[in-house]
Amino acid sequence: MKTRKELRKLKSILKKVKQKEEEVSKLSDKQLAALTSQFKRRYQEGETLDDLLPEAFAAMAVADERILGKHPYDVQIMAGIALHLGFLAEMSTGEGKTLSATMPLYLNALTGKSCVLVTTNEYLAIRDGKEMGEVYEFMGLSCSYPPANADEEDNEKRKIRYSADIIYSTNTGLGFDYLFNNLVKKADDRFLCDLYYVIIDEADAVLLDMAIMPLVISGVPRVQSNLYALCDFFVTALVQDIDYIEEEQAVWLTPKGVEFAENFFGIPNFYGKEYFEINRHVTLALRAHVLLKRNKDYVVTDENEVELVDAGTGRLMHGVKLRGGQHQAIESKEKVEITQEFRTVASITYQNLFLMFEKMAGMSGTILDAKDELFDTYHKKVVRIPTNRPVIRDDRKDLYYKNAQTQFWSAVAKVLEVHKTGQPVLIVLNSVQDTDLFSKLLLQENVPHNVLNANNAFWEAEIISGAGQLNAVTVATSMAGRGTDIKLGEGVRELGGLAVIGVGRMDNTRNERQARGRSGRQGDPGFSQYFVSLEDDVVNSEDNEKLEKIIDGKRRITKHRLKKIINGAQKIKTEYSEISRKQAVQYDEVLKRQRSFIYEARDGLLDGGTLAETQLIEIARRNIHEFVKENDCSDRSVLTRYILDNVSYTIDEGLTTLRLDDKEAIERYLVSRVRRGLGSQRMKFQDRDKYEQFIREATLKALDDGWVELIDYLEQLKYAVSGRASAQRNIIYEYQNEAYESYLDNEKTVKRNIIRNILLSEVSINKKGNLNVIYP
Ligand SMILES: Nc1ncnc2c1ncn2[C@@H]1O[C@H](COP(=O)(O)OP(=O)(O)OP(=O)(O)O)[C@@H](O)[C@H]1O
């Protein structure tokens, strides 16, 4: 209902754009391009973007037509308006999202701030950036896109890329750049633009499907743990439902399992803090064995390496590893060489990355299905844009089967029937394994075909572009190229367009609709049909025995019931995914606040901020107060240790005569030593600026070291607490509590290290006047 109101609003703005277009289209190229500086001036003088919208959209639409030969359809202009207003726009597959985005990007860039368009893969970002870039440049705005080889991009080039008016990027590229931008050591090294306006292409994939795994930057190697093999062995001895329980994509030990673990490892309390590592490794091994499936979640390559499979696209994720030791636990399970684990130095989830933008919008062919969740998480509304031409694709009724055998053979029969006429067929399956199997069946039937799955992603663009030609048969994983346009070959329209055959119920309806949407684009003919069965991956019934009897044909089942089981399973899977995403948000919640605090402090320091001497003394005073309160200071050696570790490499007379029963006197003495230390460090500098630079760098180092330590710990904690799940425990609550505690600890460490870095560093200024610091 509400959508209708929003559509009315879009339509009324569209009308204004169309009116302006009449005038604008009469302008010469030069006059058209000159509008940009006029709009910019008017914006500076106080007109709002909403005021400028009709003219700016009209100008960009005319420019699109003149440069690209494509005039945006009315529905594309409406989509553009929705994107400017910050909606998530559902535009049916093939309706031309790329062109729609040009108008709101142009409008928002008139502010002088950079606007970003994020797509899911580099190929699309480069292609669209290049193609649409011509129009922006014609209009006098700059546009950038990712370099073909990211390794060759130095900081200066990055700065140029991020200073463009309009930036095409990938979600991953942008995320990592955000993290790297907050790891720089000098203000001058920062390169990222302000996070002002972003449009996310394939928004459901980015905001939902990819949101579970945070982006992570790894640093130095971690000392290798020897617990993997042992815990892997332990886990193989466990029995489901007796020692552990698997539910809602989580797995945890029962009290019986915990008792077994305590006996096995010879420890009194499995959940004790001192056994954190054992607990964590058992959880990792359990997850590796119970939740992570070979050839579905990951594959073991010919080189004996574990590589992850992207569930959404079916592609192998080269170089991407599960964090917190999970990857190593899988390697242990698969008995391949355990690879090096690295410490996390920075991480962020997509949710929090995009929520940092002042204004965010998104578009996708399939986003309406998840509108409630998107509203909950991102406070964003979905609006459905009508199609340019009616969709005439025939989405045929799903066909239900008891087992995979009849399901696959029926699908093959259908392919044969269609292929005989020359009509191209795209077969979409759920896993690499399934594509291989289907390919074999087609070979048996002598049907020539292309296979597009995780193993040969390299040829993807090539194969997909041919999938709409006469006689083409293409077997693909569920990726089926979101964002790829399958053009119909000559004579194909007459044969009924592209046929999409789906085999197996997918994890969610969005992915199914994406696959269907490869056909019937822009009013093209085509049909789609799904073949599903009780043996589809998503069906994971409680009552396996009964199910097996049905699958084997030993037990009868009504059509209605069959349908109910399979579709119910998909619903449950969708709900579980929603729960994991909510959890990911909650996990990152703690980190989010701390991250913004730390990054702000960093920025302040980089921008020339520094701590005044009085502030340093105050920090030291608190450190000392804590120390004296928590330690037995009647023992002189404790004080000696503290001084040597934190204040000075020399011990003086004052300590030997100090009265150890007077805590205040001890504190006064230690503070005076700090004061003296600061003075003697300051004396080494003739130049006040250099001294401040030293203080700044020493503080930054303490902050960074502490932060890295903290997020690396939190990464591990996440896995450790997931193994504590049970009816009585709220793991998110436990995580948040422990995370908060470690944050407070960390704060203390940082403060101690600031003082320590300043007092115990060796500083010198070389001949060129550069500062050299050797930190303690
Ligand atoms: N206004 C237009 N006039 C002519 N052709 C257009 C227009 N808009 C888009 N197209 C063409 O329609 C095709 C589909 O566009 P595009 O790939 O942007 O669709 P999409 O919405 O991103 O599809 P998907 O949902 O699959 O990602 C492209 O070949 C594009 O050039």
Structure characterization notes:
It is built from 28 helices and 23 strands. The chain has 776 residues and is an alpha/beta fold. The chain has 4 domains: 2-215 and 351-384, 3-Layer(aba) Sandwich (Rossmann fold), CATH 3.40.50.300; 223-340, Pre-protein croslinking domain of SecA, CATH 3.90.1440; 394-563, P-loop containing nucleotide triphosphate hydrolases (Rossmann fold), CATH 3.40.50; 613-774, Helical scaffold and wing domains of SecA. The strands form 6 sheets. A 7-stranded parallel sheet has the order 3-4-2-5-13-1-14, with helices on both faces. Strands 15, 16, 17, 18, 19, 20 and 21 form a 7-stranded parallel sheet that branches. Helix 3 crosses helix 6 (122-138). The protein is flat and about 100 Å long. The mean pLDDT is 87. The site of adenosine-5'-triphosphate has 19 residues, from helix 5. It catalyses: ATP + H2O + cellular proteinSide 1 = ADP + phosphate + cellular proteinSide 2.
